[in-house]
Each structure stands twice: as C-alpha cells, then as structure tokens.
C-alpha cells in the first residue's frame, strides 16, 4: 500500500482528494497538519503557505504542491526541484494524476529503485541496448560488387 500525506488547508478539496485516493484500495491516506517526512510516499502540500516550502529541500520528487497561478512561490517551488504542481481551481482528479506521477518517480518501497532490475537499465547505469536479432534468410549477394541482389552488374 502506498502512503500519501495531505497537508492542505482547503478541507473540501482535501476530502475529495482523500476519497479519490482511498477508492482504489492501493493508498493509505493521512490528512495531516504538517507532513511527517519519516514516512515514505508522496506528500501533498499547500504551496501558498511559505512555511510549507521548507519541506521541499530534502526530497522534492516526493511532493505535489498545490498553489495559485502566478504565485510568488512558484519559481521557488520549481527551483527546489518539485515537478508536480497543481493549481488551485484544478479538479481533485488532476491532483490525483499528479500524485500518481510523483509515485512513479519514487524508489520502490521494497528497497529497489524503479530503474533497477534485470533489464538493460540498472540503477546508475544506462547502457545502450540494441537487441541482436537472428538473420533468418540473408539476402543473396552479387559476387562482383557484394551488394544484395539485384545489382547493377546483373547475373
């Protein structure tokens, strides 16, 4: 189960978002006054409250920030590394999508990174991987020019 902390001042929006997240059965949702950063998971905060912006310093990828369009804090939020911003007036469904996107960027809770595993991309390593496909029937080659048939020399 994925943990979500909602630290928002708009109680109606918070309740709508909590209902959306709880409905899928995959989220444990906490409505909190202040986020507890010792808990794993995504944290949704009110970006209009300057005191909330201090939380962004450690792990900005964990945060979804809800703020006003044109807010003075918007550039600070972006500069802190937050990439999931929802504007006031956007639907709770939009915030729900932002939370899911933030979850996808987080390391897995089983201790492995989302990019680790047996595939070609391992944590800290990006190798170019071109699969080697078997050649079933190689094209016939011209003995003179080595081009695949037909060629300009003919047969």
What is the string of helix and strand elements? Answer: EHEEEHEHEE
CATH architectural grouping of the domain at 2-105: 3-Layer(aba) Sandwich
Question: Span from first to last CA?
Answer: 69 Å
Which spans have pLDDT < 50 for at least 5 consecutive residues?
111-135
Can you describe this structure?
The strands form two sheets. The chain has a five-stranded parallel sheet with strand order 2-1-3-4-5, covered by helices on one side. β1 (2-7), α1 and β2 form a beta-alpha-beta unit. The radius of gyration is 25 Å and the shape is globular. The protein is built from three helices and seven strands; from the N terminus they run βαβββαβαββ. The protein has a domain at 2-105: 3-Layer(aba) Sandwich (Rossmann fold). Mean pLDDT is 78; it is low at 111-135. Helix content is 21%, strand content 18%. The protein has 155 residues and is an alpha/beta fold.
